[in-house]
Amino acid sequence: MISLAHFQVLAYILFCLGIYGVLARKSTVLVLMSIELMLNAVNINLIGYSAFGSFGGSHTALGQVIIVFVITIAAAELALAIAIILRLYRERRSVNVDEIDLLKG
Amino acid sequence: MNDFALLIPEFLVAGLAFFILALDLFLKENWKQYLAWVGFVGVVAILVISLFVESEGQLYDGLLEFDEFTKFFRIFFLVIAAVAVVISREYVESKLKYPGEYYGILLFTLLGAMLLASSAELLTAYINLELLSFGLYVLVGYERYNAKSNEAAVKYILLGAFSSALILFGISQIYGILGTTRFDEMSVAFSALPSIYPGLAVGFVLIVSGLGFKLAAVPFHMWAPDVYEGAPLPITAWLSVASKAAALALAMRLFAEGFFTVFGEWQPIIIVIAASTMVVGNLLALVQKNMKRLLAYSSIGHMGYLLMGLAALVPIVGDGTTTEKFSNLVSNGLLFHMVSYGFTSMAAFLCVIVVYNKTGRDDISGLAGLSKRQPLVSLVLVSALFSMAGLPVFVGFASKFYLFNAVGGQGLLWLVGLAIVMSLISLYYYLMVARQLYIESSEDGSPISVSFPTKVVLGGLFGVMIVLGVYPAPLMAAIQRATDAIVSGNLLSLV
User: How many domains does chain A have?
Assistant: First the structure.
């Protein structure tokens, strides 16, 4: 039987994988994918709480409402990020994080 | 019953943004320089309207809350936006393409900031934060063919997206355990809990670190100097004031209304962040060669002082006892220092913009001999730097004195001591700039001309810095009304 704990464990694992990806990947595109992974972990967490969590005996649909917003905003964020990364690629012919080093000090 | 009259200023800002975007399509190339004035007149008109608009009530079942706090921030953002639009004018004309979209997106970020100050629910706050951030991502990378600007935009959007994922996971944890995301219901739910669950602590820490990114607090500050350096200068100015003030407004409302009943849990975290932010910001500023990076680190240092105020925003007095009287002094000091930092920072950036427009240099040695080439700009810049350092007469002294005094009264004397030492250290790097301005001389001694509107803004900001430093009473009265709104709400929910 699937319980709230299953949702939570899956969400935590995905979220941590996402954080690892953001810190360890070289390509900015892969960093973006890792951020998407984190956002999906949020969604799974919210589904779990929305379906199983009983707050004083009453279920709320709030979690599912939040998910719709998260998906929409994530799509917008991704589109914007890809556009900016494309711009960088046109200037540099590279999207690697460790080669973006013009600004430092 | 929704009373949409409460949202009139926000509707007008959105309308103005769309109007400028649409007007841009129909204007000939040589007419587009006047879009800045359309934006400026529009923002000033909205400012006047919002002074008279009714601002008490709730919208959308309490998702947006309107009170004196909202009104204060709304007016502050509109004033700063009006300044930002005027100081962008010459820069956009000479360095950027597509002025219509520039001003349009700038106004959308203004809309996000204004709405953020009235959000009283976590998801609403998140959406408004993203409205603010998305516009800033675009504006930071607005110099499309400048590699630095592109790089700054990539760094900003990757870290911004990462931080918003952190905030979202925090929100999901809070929702999962408390069953609500509204601030007022959160504080009630918190006090009903037998103890703080680990899951709740995870949620709290993630929200704080996400906000830390937006505020550029140490250890989440790494993006700030790079983004400040790469972004177009007027956007750097706007970013350093509006986005931070908006995040601070959210943090104040969240801590004072949502997390209020669990202050014991969050205070140590904020204290550590505040202390490290002011130390790191001020020490790293010492070695900077670029004026934008210097101001970036100095703004990180100022965030440290503000976070110190946030840490003291608890109903505990010096001897460790809890009082039901929430300290109004601290929240007043927070808002006062934020306003003072906002105007001072705009003044400093405007001076750097004037010099950059004419000489194309934004390093500190590029300012050498400015007192001979352009005495007015030099005077305003040195006053802004002295105000940031906290020297008397200027507003920075009054606000720092007020804030430090209030925090000291909350029993955090060692933190205040640290802040005072850091203020002294900051005087060193501000004086290094002043030395370039007044003692060093440059090879190129040709005078720098300043246009009339810029002179008016320079004079206005200089006047604000002096007047608020000498006679802050009217501002303090407005601040008192603003903080009463979020503080009195708490007292009711406590009893």
Answer: 1
